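User: Hello! My lab partner asked me to get a predicted holo structure for this protein. The small molecule is NAP, SMILES included with the sequence. Please write out the structure tokens.
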Amino acid sequence: MTRLRCAIIGGTGYTGGELLRLLSFHPYAEVTQITSRSRMGEYAHSVHPNLRGVTGLQFIRPEDVQKTDVLFLCLPHGEAGAQIEHWAGLADRIIDLSADFRLRDLAAYKRWYGQDHPAPGWVEQFVYGLPELSREDLKSARYVSGVGCNATATNLALLPLVKAGLIDWSLPVVADVKVGSSEGGAESSPASHHPERSGAVRSYAPAGHRHTAEVEQMIGMVMGNTQSSIIHMSVTSIEMVRGVLATVHVFLKEPAQEKTLWKAFRDCYKNEPFVRIVKSSSGIFRAPEPKILAGSNWADVGFALSEDGRKATLLCAIDNLMKGAAGSAVQSLNIMMGWDERAGLEFPGLHP
Ligand SMILES: NC(=O)c1ccc[n+]([C@@H]2O[C@H](COP(=O)([O-])OP(=O)(O)OC[C@H]3O[C@@H](n4cnc5c(N)ncnc54)[C@H](OP(=O)(O)O)[C@@H]3O)[C@@H](O)[C@H]2O)c1
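Assistant: Hello! Below are the structure tokens for the protein in complex with NAP.
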């Protein structure tokens, strides 16, 4: 069987490296081109040493990319939007991991990203690449947007109760999101300098994180309206390289019993290949924990109910580079192509 030819634009970055790792073991796809402006001509494994002996690909310049089947754009914010006409001329299908095409609402884009959208005519053509939310639309998509990693953890924690209509929206919904350092990408900065970053518990965005927009969009998609400013999200950087843990506090319309929440979670996720409900009464890993998800596409979700049954704490753990980026991108590709959704994504993570 001829494999689908993929090109990774922005291949020295963390999401680009993760895509190269995944697609190197994919049964139906392969990476045939990978770009870098700074490391042009060097072997990909010189930047991604875990792939030494796995791939002999060398970086080429972005302007030398030849026509191919699928382009994965792994570029900093704004670059895909500015160059989308160019990239669309090189492939029938594009998966853009940046935030450029995630938001349907151009006013929301302007509000959260502080500028007019650079390619407004393209926004409608992109499908939001979270299979648990957009699977049907992904089946016929040509252009897919990536997902925000903090938004994904928050969305997958909230989705069962949003779908079941259990949340009291007149009261605050608060998402506390703890994140690892690889969210910041491969480029170093004063904030990522080891003596500054190591051991930090740094309130990165106590209010107003941009991924709030993707959570509000999810709620609008499920509930059929465009409520705004209903989610309060705080993002805190902690001592972790990969991983996101979202802890979302909601009030319920009616006092509930645990079995009501179990039903909501089971109804939502019983057919999902990459979501596990984690809620044990004993052991160390009673609740979702990002540590054991490193390198895997699993999203582990769970919940706890207050004694009076009025308040639920919803949890979701993911690997930001996987379910929060490259893993969801490959899962979306699998859906677009009509392949088994699990193809190339079976790695279960590590323990300890
Ligand atoms: N890190 C995460 O956890 C995560 C999760 C979800 C989504 N995302 C999104 O995914 C995208 C990539 O993130 P990342 O963490 O992989 O970033 P990164 O590590 O900083 O990598 C960016 C890549 O883009 C290349 N690049 C930069 N400017 C370019 C330009 N103008 N033209 C062509 N290539 C350019 C860089 O290589 P050269 O400079 O050598 O060309 C590098 O390979 C971002 O938009 C990010 O928001 C990231």
